[in-house]
Design a protein that fits this description.
This protein has nine helices and ten strands.
Length: 231
């Protein structure tokens, strides 16, 4: 289980996160909601080690990983699909997927068939350059690359941003499948409320770097959540 405990994060003198706490459990999707600029991506970067926190703890499997480097967290089963995808445009689809081998022992350095079952288009385009794919296909590739690492915690930062509706449905089905397996905790950052609501088991809402609402899906008051997501 992931337990973020009262973390603060600064960029110089500006405080981006203010005593943020939440949990993410295996077999459940935890959605992080809020407007642009409220600290959602900063929170994800703190979890995966791209930004150091000033105080608090990030507990994973009972161990505080806050001082570990990103590659050390990856070896502990934490994978990240960044906002904007960040695939390698000059590498082929196969080569992009194989970059996920880095944290794995040699015996696991292969691309699981499960990834092609979830995203068949990747198998059809193995030798095409990543930069030649559509935005939606690149998002599928970014998720596939993360899954190559055999994560037990999957962090997805706005996977529906700029994606056509048909591929949004494919991504939703993939997240549902991964949740149902029961061995992976999923943290999903979203601004597309309907997508998040349909997938969420638990949620937190952020505003000005702090958590202002949270709970399980049954306790979600849609009007309250939407009030923190509207501009």
């Amino acid at each position: 289980m992931l337990a973020v405990e009262s973390i603060d994060l600064f960029y110089g003198a500006a405080q981006a996160l203010r005593s943020v706490s939440f949990e993410a459990k295996p077999g459940r999707v935890t959605c992080v909601l809020g407007r642009n600029g409220v600290g959602k991506t900063s929170l994800m970067r703190a979890i995966i080690g791209h930004q150091a926190i000033a105080s608090g703890r990030i507990m994973w499997d009972g161990v505080d990983v806050a001082k570990l480097a990103p590659h050390q967290r990856a070896r502990r089963g934490i994978a990240y699909v960044p906002q904007g995808r960040e695939i390698f445009p000059l590498l082929s689809v196969r080569e992009n997927l194989e970059t996920g081998f880095a944290p794995l022992p040699r015996g696991q350095r292969f691309v699981p068939d499960e990834i092609f079952d979830l995203f068949p288009v990747l198998k059809d385009m193995l030798w095409r350059r990543g930069g030649d794919l559509s935005g939606g296909q690149q998002q599928q590739l970014a998720i596939g690359r993360a899954l190559v690492t055999r994560p037990r915690l999957l962090v997805l930062d706005e996977p529906t941003e700029g994606i056509q509706p048909s591929i949004i449905k494919d991504i939703g089905r993939a997240i549902e499948y991964l949740r149902e397996k029961g061995d992976m905790a999923i943290v999903l950052v979203e601004q597309y409320f309907d997508f998040a609501r349909d997938l969420a088991d638990d949620f937190i809402v952020m505003d000005r770097g702090a958590v202002v609402l949270g709970g399980d899906k049954a306790s979600m008051v849609e009007s309250d959540v939407r009030s923190y997501m509207s501009v």
